[in-house]
Write a structure and sequence with these properties.
By secondary structure, this protein is mostly helical. The chain is 59% helix and 0% strand. It has 8 helices and no strands. Helix 1 crosses helix 3 (37-50), helix 2 crosses helix 3 and helix 5 packs across helix 6 (95-108). The longest helix is centred in the C-terminal third of the chain and has 32 residues, at 144-175. It is elongated. The relative contact order is 0.06.
Length: 177
């Protein structure tokens, strides 16, 4: 079976309905439908606690604050809750989220629970603009040396462009016999 397969609300309801009607235990129904027993049991418990809302897919990845994560872990410790009980009490999508929070605390302390920025960092404003020559800040006319330096820069760029164009034409002509 494929990992992270999404199941429709109707499918989840039909599985939970089989359990509620007494057609079998979570274990037998899971085996019949080639599903992990823990998943079917989680669906059943979410349905019992929250009704149909508990089975509906959640939109996107939720971001939980550091204080929320810490309070969840402290309540689990104080009240000796299982991961499944804590998942239901705090309406979390999966008990594995809490297990991951525990691992982060063990590895990095409570600082490891801070929400992390994901993805590629945004570009700075200067990086968004194409590379252009620096503009002169002053209005003072260029000296003869500065004019010659600019002209030399322009001619070098033009020469490099023409060499590249010539190389591409040569390469293209070799391909076409």
């Amino acid at each position: 079976m494929r990992k992270n397969k999404k199941h429709s609300l109707e499918f989840k309801l039909s599985i939970v309905d089989m359990i509620v009607q007494g057609q079998g235990s979570a274990k037998t129904i899971a085996k019949k439908n080639s599903l992990p027993r823990e998943m079917v049991r989680r669906w059943q418990m979410q349905f019992e606690s929250f009704g149909i809302e508990g089975l509906k897919p959640r939109g996107g990845n939720a971001v939980y604050s550091q204080s929320f994560k810490i309070s969840v872990l402290q309540i689990i410790q104080e009240e000796n809750l299982s991961l499944m009980e804590a998942m239901l009490r705090f309406n979390l999508p999966s008990p594995s989220i809490i297990a991951n929070w525990r691992k982060q605390v063990e590895a990095h302390g409570f600082e490891g629970l801070k929400p992390q920025v994901k993805g590629r960092p945004p570009m700075e404003k200067n990086d968004r603009l194409p590379n252009k020559r620096k503009k002169r800040a002053s209005k003072v006319p260029l000296t003869r040396e500065e004019q010659l330096q600019q002209e030399l820069e322009y001619l070098r760029a033009e020469n490099a462009l023409l060499k590249k164009l010539h190389a591409l034409v040569q390469k293209d002509s070799k391909r076409k016999p």
